[in-house]
Predict the 3D structure of the following.
Amino acid sequence: MSRIRRSFLERPVLDVAPDLLGCTITAGGVTIRLTEVEAYAGGHDPGSHAFRGQTPRTEVMFGRAGHLYVYFTYGMHWCANIVTGQEGAAS
């Protein structure tokens, strides 16, 4: 299994998202396979948590590509956003 280079994730979110489909992520002994992806264009997309700007909660989304923004939604699902694009873009 090969690792993804940061430069792969520093591309525009609409290019990265379909390329991530089927990839696996391993952390802390847990491995997941990405079976569904969505793309949010940060500050330009009302569906993005970053739409209203940087807050302590969304700060990681404005950081370097490759970080995860993880949150619990609807009281039952964990969601993870993989930060893509250039730092500060929140994609």
User: Anything to note?
Assistant: Residues 13-20 form the longest helix (8 residues). The domain at 6-82 is CATH 3.10.300.10 (3-methyladenine DNA Glycosylase; Chain A). The chain has a mean pLDDT of 91. Strands lie at 24-27, 30-33, 68-73, 77-82.
